[in-house]
What does this fold into?
Amino acid sequence: MTTPTQLAATLLALALCAGSACAQTAPDMGKFLATGGVSQLEGGGGGGLTPWALITGYGTRDSYGGNAHATRVKTQDYALASYGVAVGLFDRVELSLAKQEFSGRLAPLNQLTLRQEIVGIKLKVAGDAVYEQDSALPQVAVGAMYKRDHAVGGLGALGVTSVRQLGAKRDRGTDYYVAATKILFAQSLLLNGTLRATKANQMGLLGFGGDKHDGYQVMPEISAAYLVNRKLVAGVEYRRKPRNLGVDNEKSYYDAFVAYFPTKHVSVTAAYVELGDITVFNTRRQHGLYLSLQAGF
Amino acid sequence: MKLKTLLASLALSMMAAAVMAQQAPTFSDDATYQGLGGKDGVARISQSFVAYVQKDPRIAEAFKDFDMAQLDARLQAFLCEYSGGPCKYTGQFKDKTMDGKGTVRDMTTVHADMKSTNLQFNAVTECLQQAMVDAGVAPAIQWKLIAKLAPLQRVIVTQ
It folds into this structure.
């Protein structure tokens, strides 16, 4: 049975070599600066917390683009790292692959590690956020994220090696979403609304579905950003989460971010994030610094 | 229906569509024009833009046979109108590549045979934005002009 990684690699190879995409052209790096968004926590193009309708990378509709990202979030008691790669094809299709590693920093959870892999796919279905400045219609994309957890580490003393032992129904699952992004150049604004159907607990790090609830629920995610100048964007995000687990009164994620794009090859995003309290074993609301680096073309 | 009549109606409706697709933008004030620096600012930006375009390997080739002085003059009128200034872009200039009779050249007809791509449209816009950055135009004003120009992609990009 193929792993998510093998599946993603196959899809990527197929997509790149379909039709005339294979062979000649080098990436054209033709999109405007910053219009691929940054890399969100689950690997795809968007804000920091939320996928947007923008297709990652700087390839125009005649080309392709790609990038790699590394992100680190540190709160009082936990750390979250995300690493991944993503590619945008013909400004129409986006494929992404990411790995998340969540670790505890405070005893008795200081050995805790939760890991998941995420394979993402996104398809732009309508509109153009950059060109359609004379229309009220946003750019719209639909997408899915297939997520799979690794074994739980660091809770061996409690005999816990799987998220299912923490109340989750499954250790793998898929999120489905629709995103609408509108860039209003006249007001220097970018707005995004995403609706995500999900069963994921803490994005999937604590499994999927739970003892309290086990069914898809639609969660709203909102981003609003100000285009300070060509190279600088500042904004806020909100992401609502389901509460499926008895052991976790899961809260919404919030952030305030600044993203800097010195060139089309690199971007840096820094944010203050609010992650809420994570599990009933630690009631302290977690907040801290988010730092992300994206490099690509 | 006679072929001639059919072709004539087709041509008329295409021209009408081109005109409709390219309605001049409306403004409630000339804040963007003033933000660009008025007449002098627009002239400075236009000249700077022309220099950037000729140096940009992505688009320099497309401007090879152009009378750049004429392009500069036309662009100033165009930018004046598209930023809410007191101008009306008529496109009525003579230049080497035309029949010299002062035919009206709107964005659609100028670009009709060029097979321009999004890459080229974006490159031209980036040159314009760099010229505005050099001229010290406030980012909010830069974005306002870009907001008026972006919809032209529909008629300029044909490839």
The mean pLDDT of chain B is 84. Chain B touches chain A through 24 residues (CB under 8 Å).
